[in-house]
Amino acid sequence: MSIKERFRQAISSAKNIVVTTHIYPDADGIGAQIALCLALRKLGKWVIGVNQKSLLQRYHYLDASNLVISAKEFQKNHGKKDIDLLIVTDTNYIARIGPEAEKAVARARNVLFIDHHPCPKEIAAIHCIDTTKAATSELVGEFITLLGVEFTPQIALPLYTGILVDTSSFRYPTVTGDTHLMVAKFMNAGVTPSDAYNLIYGTKKPDHIRLLGKILAQTKTNKSGSMAWISVYEKDLKEYKVDAEDTHAFINHLLVLDNIQLACMFRELPQNQLKISLRSTVDTIDAGAMAQALGGGGHNHSAAAILEGSIDDLLPATLEKLERMLLKK
Known about the structure:
Number of helices: 13
Structural class: alpha/beta
Helix content: 40-55%
CATH topology of the largest domain: inorganic pyrophosphatase (n-terminal core)
Strand order of the largest sheet: 3-2-1-4-5-6
Order of helices and strands: HEHEEHEHEHEHHHHHEEHEEHEEH
CATH architecture of the largest domain: Alpha-Beta Complex
């Protein structure tokens, strides 16, 4: 059975559907989630988006119909609702949706992962996983087309944004002609690329540029220049009054360096945690496998892991591990 047939079968037999995504959701997971909710509602399904926490303010414009709620709100208002199908976007591991969300949807009769990240073959055999797609939003675009639902501006914008962000503005090798054909459908539905870019990345205040300049000025590389890294400290975010969510794209500035194969960003999180973001520029360097080795995950060209501890404590050992994996020694 193809993944399209699997998707169609799961949808046809479900009346009440919950769509969720992973904790600390990005634009791809959220975009796929919102677009699916809108498309399935057009088919007459009872559908709602449920996440571990409410959407961050920066993503509210993607959810103009207020379809996505927190797990606590779902428990309060719909806790006794019979759920025929739980759709999980942009991850293929149920624990990644978060404990509150997992508890809220525990009674779902069926679960379907829709994702483009690598997974065990046993999971791929019964879910909708396609690792050739540039983003989960691209795959969801195909599924919505399969359902015969017309792309509206409200459906197309979240999907376009998901692909835009997950491919670092279409720069990863996973972007194909099919990706651009799908993007063309979104544009024909009313998405304007320049507007979509400005909405997700926003205009910046001078302090944002000053912080970026400070961080990039402290860029470090290994001897060969094949690996580069930057560090983002909580104290700097507070000093420059910059939201941590607005630092995601900082790592992409490293991708223009000569000889770069692996870009890394180390960002302090609250409660003594460290987020490590990885970007690979070549097919032979698997950022997802590297992140998995550190306890995280992702796909070939973009991945991340969260560790317990501070940048200063974890940086030396983590860099050593990354360089050993880069050199495969």
